[in-house]
Amino acid sequence: VNNTFRDQSIRWESTEALDFGFDFSVKNGLLGLTFDWFNRAAYNILAQPLIPASLGLNSQTINNGRMRSRGIELELTHRNRVGEVGYGVDFQVSTARNEVLDIKVPSKGSRIREIGLPYDSHYLYEWDGIFQVEDIGNPDVPEHALNPNPRPGDLKMKDQDGDGDVDENDRIVVKGAYPDFIYSFGFNVDYKRFSLTSFFQGVAGPKARVNNWGVDPFMQGTAPTEKFRNAWTEENRSNTIPALYIAGYSGVASYGASTYYLQNASYLRLKNIMLSYMLPDAFVSKLKLGGINVYVSADNLFTVTDYEGADPERNGVTGNYAQYPQVKIYNVGLNVKF
Q1: In angstroms, rounded to a whole number, what is the distance separating the alpha carbons of residues 145 and 159?
Q2: How far apart (Å, rounded) are the C-alpha atoms in residues 153 and 241?
Q3: What are the pLDDT digits (tens) for 274-316?
Q4: What pLDDT score was predicted for residue 241?
Q5: CB 3.0–4.6 Å: which of 82, 191, 312, 333 could bond 265 by disulfide?
């Protein structure tokens, strides 16, 4: 039984790349610079386009188009020693932009694939506040195709084309499917037998569209988060938090593909910090060892972010709000050389 379409003309993906870079260092690492610029184009990209269920077969894998990605990577380093104190600083940053150059089967879901746009950009309704009592039945308020009978406290969307109703033609491309920058930096310092190192990492600009547990109250019986203390009521006519609802309620869930569900997933995280001490040679030699280093370290010690969930370093920019976070780890140990 043939249950999947087959494309007999399918070919391997191919890539062309132009890369330019240089390394620069002076005075034994006092100042170092590494720069890289790249321009890559991928051809015959393999994909499974969406097809109508009425066809009765699963979608086939095809060569769906071409895409270009351009960006830069930069690293700066500094090493120095002042008397018995040595130190070093590292900083890395990269940014890249991609663009669809050709596509056989465009798509417009909550993510869009069209020529001239970044691949799988957010394609959403723009959240425009909360329906108030005076909005109900007001002819100046656009009708909402996905929620034709709104109630006070429901989500309200923006009529982009000004035709008096909010439908699929009012969705817009929203920046944030990819970070503006990915960066990291660290420093190390040593004094006599002590050494301290640290490493920070972060991203700037990504926006995650998240829902379910933690966003929608009473999802599988879970309690609402604290922000719903400011939910819309007759006495508290909030324009930021909808009226308390049960997950799946059409006045909110109908516009799940909207900017209401976007979260700023930018963050800066201390990934690792370690303090170590090398035991004196006189003591180590008595044990007939090559060296003993005692250390204490911590991973994921703190994170600076506006993301409301447990962890902005999440898997993807769409999906469940609640994902298992990276845990803090504390270590105490010995490194022994024989």
Answers
A1: 11
A2: 8
A3: 999 988 888 877 777 778 889 999 999 999 999 988 889 988 8
A4: 95
A5: 312
Contact 193, 278 (CB under 8 A): yes
pLDDT in tens, 108-127: 889 999 999 999 999 999 99
- The conformation of residue 74, written as its DSSP 8-state character, comes to E
Distance of alpha carbon 219 from alpha carbon 262, whole angstroms: 18
Spacing of C-alpha 185 from chain mean position: 19
Q: Who's near 222: CB < 8 A, 6+ residues apart?
A: 213, 214
Q: What is the pTM of this model?
A: 0.87
- What is the H or E stretch that residue 17 is in? strand 14-26
Closest CA to 259 of 120, 114, 128, 141: 128
42 neighbors 70 (Cβ within 8 angstroms): no
Cα–Cα distance for residue pair 154/151, rounded to 1 Å: 6
In one-letter notation, the amino acid at residue 4 is T
Q: Which two tokens stand for residue 283?
A: 């003591």
Query: Nearest-5° angle of CA 278, CA 279, CA 284?
Result: 125
